[in-house]
Amino acid sequence: MSFNPSAPDTGPKGNIELIPEGPTPARCARVIEIGVQKNDLHPEYGEKNKVVIAFSLPNHKININGEEKQRFISVPFGISMSNNEASTMAQYVKALNPHAQNLGEFLDRPCQINIAHYTKRDGNTGERIDSVSPIMPGYEVAELDTEPFWFQWDNPDPRTWEMIPQFTKDLIQEAVNYPGSKVQEMVDSLSNDNTDDLPY
Prior knowledge:
7-stranded mixed sheet; about 200 residues
C-alpha cells in the first residue's frame, strides 16, 4: 500500500481512568495499515483505504503487571490515506513529519495531540484524538518506553503482526481487499505453522 504525502485501541478498558481532555505531548508509536474498510454507518461515503495511528503519552501512565508504562491512544477505526491538503492525513503529515515519504517516517516523532471526550453508543464516555499538531519548538518529549512499529499491507511482517491488538487484527481481516492479499497469505501461513505443531 503506497503513500505519497504530496491512521492499545482507543478508549479506557475496565476501571482505567479517562485521559483528561486537552492538549498533551505524545510520540507516534504504531502505524498499522488496515486495508480498504467499509463504512457501515455512512455507506454513502464509500470504501476507504485506512491506517491506524497510535500515540504513546509520556505524561499519562498506567500500571501493567506492576510496571508504570505510558498510556496509548489511537485514531478510532483509522484515518483515510489521502493526498488532499484538507484531509485528516494531511494534518498528521504536517504535525509528525512534513517531509515523510512513507508512513514509517511518522514513527517516534513527537507532537501534541488534543484529547476530547465523547458519549459512546452504549452511553459510556470515551476518549478520542480531536486534533494533532506540531510540538512547540524547544519542548522536550520523553522517549517511547515501547518498541515502535509499522505494519505494512504490501509487506506484512509476522513478528509485527503478533504485536497488533486483536481488535485491530479483526479490522484487518474484515477489510474489503483482505481476501487474496499478502496479509491473508501471511496469516494463513502462520495458522498452518501452528497447526503443524499440534499433537495428533
